[in-house]
Design brief:
By secondary structure, the chain is mainly β. Helix content is 3%, strand content 54%. The chain contains one helix and 28 strands. The strands form seven sheets. Strands 21, 22, 23, 24, 25, 26, 27 and 28 form an eight-stranded antiparallel sheet that branches. The chain has a five-stranded antiparallel sheet with strand order 10-11-12-13-14, with no helix packed on it.
Length: 343
């Protein structure tokens, strides 16, 4: 017995200027008028960040429209920093339709992005609500900021922030962009501030950590770092679209060097609200002819980051003075400090 072939009447989806879902039946050519209707309701996302539209205003009885429309597709970010959802071909929905939600990114945290937008009710009243996307922040190969929206079965959709970020005076990573206002026909500056701390992962790599447990961190490719008495400095190139040459950013971290007996060589940085976080190094250290200490810096004992630095013995206090006495009394030309190496 032959299986009966199920045929669907295709549906085209759009979004009107008030972020409402518009539904239109499509299919074979016909002289009959097609059904097209603006549905009053609101969007939401489920646990896998899939897009769902909850229909609030009832449709005409002759039209078969459910109270909830689940859409399948892929998320991306537009040049104007709106959210775009590109539909897959599935069931009744057509492939390639793009739904653009116009609104604002109002907050970013270590594992989420909040997007707010405004719609209109059936009585023409405005209503604003928020979508909370879960995922992880990372940098791409061009050193741009991205947000990986977590989907089902271990998949991700990637939002690319196609502009140049910068660093605040308190060492926080900041992203700013111009947002067009359709009604007033002018632009305003939006600022996203990421709360994290800096670390050095290896040679030609520096990271801004938001959450180590979820791997939410921006790891940037760099040139070789410059290490001095009061600062660490890296140059980073950001490949921004529509720019022939990359935009260069200097990450200059101001701080204080210390030696801790149970940790190693540390560079302490003060962040917002006077919060201190240290970048911890292992190092091979030796005395120079000018009574300074020369360090070959490493991350972990065997991970050379190709960085060298000299410190004056005058800036060392506490454990640093104890280490200096040990270094002077040691028979070795150079000694290792860091995890597992004590003096």
């Amino acid at each position: 017995m032959k299986k009966k072939k199920i045929s669907y009447e295709r549906v085209k989806y759009e979004i009107d200027p008030h972020n409402r879902l518009v539904i239109e039946e499509t299919g074979k050519k016909t002289n009959l008028p097609r059904f097209r209707q603006v549905l009053t309701g609101r969007f939401k996302i489920d646990k896998s960040n899939s897009l769902i539209y909850l229909v609030k205003a009832p449709a005409p009885q002759s039209v078969d429209i459910p109270h909830q429309v689940k859409l399948r597709g892929k998320w991306s970010l537009t040049e104007d920093h709106n959210l775009r959802f590109t539909l897959n071909k599935w069931g009744r929905q057509t492939m390639g339709d793009q739904l653009t939600l116009q609104g604002d990114i109002i907050d970013v945290s270590k594992n989420s992005l909040l997007f707010a937008f405004t719609t209109r009710t059936k009585k023409n009243a405005q209503s604003t609500y928020i979508l909370n996307f879960r995922g992880a922040w990372q940098a791409d190969k061009h050193n741009r900021l991205t947000f990986r929206i977590r989907r089902e079965r271990g998949r991700y959709d990637i939002l690319i922030f196609n502009g140049a970020w910068k660093i605040s005076k308190k060492h926080q990573l900041i992203y700013q962009y111009d947002k067009a206002q359709l009604i007033r026909k002018r632009k305003r500056i939006r600022t996203l501030t990421f709360k994290g701390y800096w670390d050095i992962e290896g040679k030609r790599r520096i990271s801004y950590i938001l959450d180590r447990k979820s791997n939410s961190a921006f790891t940037f490719k760099t040139g070789l770092g410059i290490f001095k008495n009061k600062y660490i400095k890296y140059e980073i190139s950001i490949g921004v679209s529509r720019k022939l040459a990359p935009i260069r950013r200097i990450v200059s971290l101001q701080g204080t060097w210390k030696i801790k007996k149970d940790a190693g060589l540390m560079f302490e940085i003060e962040y917002e609200n006077k919060k201190i976080h240290a970048i911890v190094f292992s190092a091979k250290a030796k005395l120079t002819a000018k009574n300074r200490i020369s360090f070959n810096l490493r991350k972990e004992i065997n991970k050379d980051i190709r960085a060298n630095m000299e410190l004056s013995v005058k800036i060392l206090e506490g454990d640093g003075q104890a280490f200096l006495r040990f270094l002077k009394s040691s028979d070795e030309t150079a000694v290792l400090i860091g995890a597992g190496f004590r003096w």
